[in-house]
Amino acid sequence: MSAGTQVGPDRRGYQLLLTCEHGGNTVPDEWRTLFAGEEMRLASHRGWDPGALDAARTLAEALEAPLISATTTRLLVDLNRSPGHRNLFSPVTRPLPAADRARILREHYHPWRERVESTLERMLALGPVLHVSVHSFTPVLDGRFRRVDIGLLYDPSRNAERRFCADWHAALRASQPTLRIRRNQPYRGTADGFTRWLRRRHPDPDYAGIELELNQALVPTTTAATALATPIAAALGRTAIAGPTPPTS
User: Fold this and answer.
1) Residue 214 to residue 52: CA distance in whole angstroms
2) Where are the beta strands (DSSP E) in 120-206?
3) How many CB atoms lie within 10 A of CB 196?
4) CA distance 138 to 141
5) Domains (range + CATH), the chain
6) Residues 214/55, Cβ–Cβ less than 8 Å
């Protein structure tokens, strides 16, 4: 599949790039000893985003869009954190000597992010790109139920992202009226993440970076994740085909 794949039969609108930063909880062989006894943490949301990769694969197949995913546990290094962020390394890897942390960055963090950035650069040479980063979140945090099923995270100061998420939100609500679809919940779209990092490097509206957050209660199996992602893909495709909306005077 070409990295320049565009959404829609007439090939107008946004080019779509999908990523999944927390798609698995695999520990590389060379670090297995370090993670001995961490099985519960690896299996939890601290280790990965359950259901996110299944949903991302469904989106990629339905929309014929490139997907760049990672299955190494975020407990080794968090691909969705900026360099220097306090949570780039986890409580497992943060105590490591500087040389070991530098090795992790060199072997796992930088190659993955550079792959995404190089793909994005090639696509931008052809036209505007919509980047959707797929994640999942726990239904309960600190004892409180989160009243969100699907979250669309974006930067409200960027016109293309704001308008796109308003349209995508409307399309999803029309097709899935029983789901609680929220904008910039359960997290802020301007919080640290790969989309925020890329926004600083690419102007609006050439680049639009959206994080799609799915409630883990709705994606416990591959079948469930596929069922949820299928109407999301349909709404995404209908919205993305229009491309960036020109600013109003």
Assistant:
1) 7
2) 129-137, 140-141, 144-145, 150-153, 181-183
3) 18
4) 7
5) 15-240 (3.40.630.40)
6) yes
Task: State the number of CA atoms in the 13 A half-sphere of 95 facing the CB.
Answer: 4
Give the DSSP H/E element, type plus range, for residue 65: none
* Side-chain half-sphere exposure of 100, counting CA atoms within 13 A: 11
Q: What is the distance between the alpha carbons of residues 104 and 90, in angstroms, rounded to a whole number? A: 12
Q: How far apart are CA 11 and CA 80, in angstroms?
A: 30
| Cβ-contact 41, 75 below 8 angstroms | yes
Residue 240 CA to residue 97 CA, distance in Å, equals 45
Q: What is the mean pLDDT of residues 131-136?
A: 98
Write out the two tokens for 177.
């009226």
State yes or no: pLDDT of 11 exceeds 60: no
Helix (H, G, I), strand (E, B) or coil at 213: strand
Tens-digit pLDDT profile for residues 22-35: 999 999 999 999 99
Element (H, E) at 192: none
Return d(Cα 169, Cα 172) in angstroms, integer: 5
pTM exceeding the 0.70 threshold for the entire prediction: yes
State pLDDT tens for residues 212-226. 999 999 999 999 999
Q: Which two tokens stand for residue 73?
A: 């546990």
